[in-house]
Amino acid sequence: MRNSKIAGVGHYVPERVVTNKDLEKIMETSDEWIRERTGIVERHYFEEGVDTTSNMGAEAARKALKMAGLEATDLDMIVFATLSPDYVFPGSGVLLQRELGIKEIPALDVRNQCSGFVYALSVADQFIKTGMYNHVLVVGSEIHSSGLDFSTRGRGVSVIFGDGAGAAVLSPSESNDKGILSTHLHADGEFAEELATIDPGSNKRERLTHEMIDEGSIYPYMNGNTVFKHAVTRFPEVIQEALQQNNYKPEDIDMLIPHQANLRITSYIQQKMGLPAEKVFSNIHKYGNTTAASIPIALSEAVEEGRIKEGDLVCLAAFGSGFTWASALIRW
Ligand code: UT7
Question: Using a 6 Å cutoff on CB, does residue 320 contact ligand 1?
């Protein structure tokens, strides 16, 4: 079976920048608390009527296609990862397809939150490996800011998340020593409600009530401490799994791109893996946590900044709601 490779990457973030100081004006929080606990300084929020989850994804996709030297019409499939789709249904994949002006190729939506991009990458990789498709677009895009509780009640969650999109175009690799070497996916539904937005769900007779809005169950809930503890275990575990499968050691990694959940989590992973800071990519200070978009935005920036070069060993790793966690090892 042939390998797939990442032929192009791109990202897009909405124009509006919201700083910690801006958030201080609307809830009881402080720039100091947010920086200290998360490393976040600012994030981007969408503009209604301008940005949507699908059109931000399309913007990132156009850049990724350009880098790959391909046209949208060359694509064989779209895999779209998001927890914040434009509509309840249909998924954002078909909207992105329409936005790119292409018809009839399949568009698959992936619902795996912070691990969504790596899950989507793995799906795309399988289609290329089997020879079924040649060029697959993988997108992670999120608009969180329209679904957060900006009262003091929601501060533990709302200061963390930001909006943005990233994309990668996957194509067949020239050799089996290059491209995506392996992907590793995991889940444990035992902890499904520890990081979740419960309402409006289909399991209640009335999907949306005034009580749900008043009680705040329409907003994301996160048991921060539990998520943190699991994250710092699962990240190193799934990175090691990828390395072992390919007979590599942590010191062989040229660039580790973890999901940007929290700077403290990233620093912990860096220390646990024994990696120097420059080999672990971080941009959470600029964007906050953009869930499915965080890894492709980081990957795109790392390539743009020349921090990933041909031949480098790149590891992507994610952990988040579900719980789900995943990794991918790539010879660039
Ligand atoms: O991307 C998906 C995966 N997500 C993650 O990996 C997130 C993992 N968890 C975390 O990153 C951290 O748990 C948080 C950053 C979410 C929270 O940090 P923490 O150190 O665990 O804080 P905490 O929730 O234990 O709260 C400590 C205090 C509380 O006050 P008391 O009870 O000690 O008086 C909170 O009410 O900080 C308070 N607090 C805030 N204060 C100012 C919570 N949020 C805020 C806030 N501003 N935004």
Answer: yes
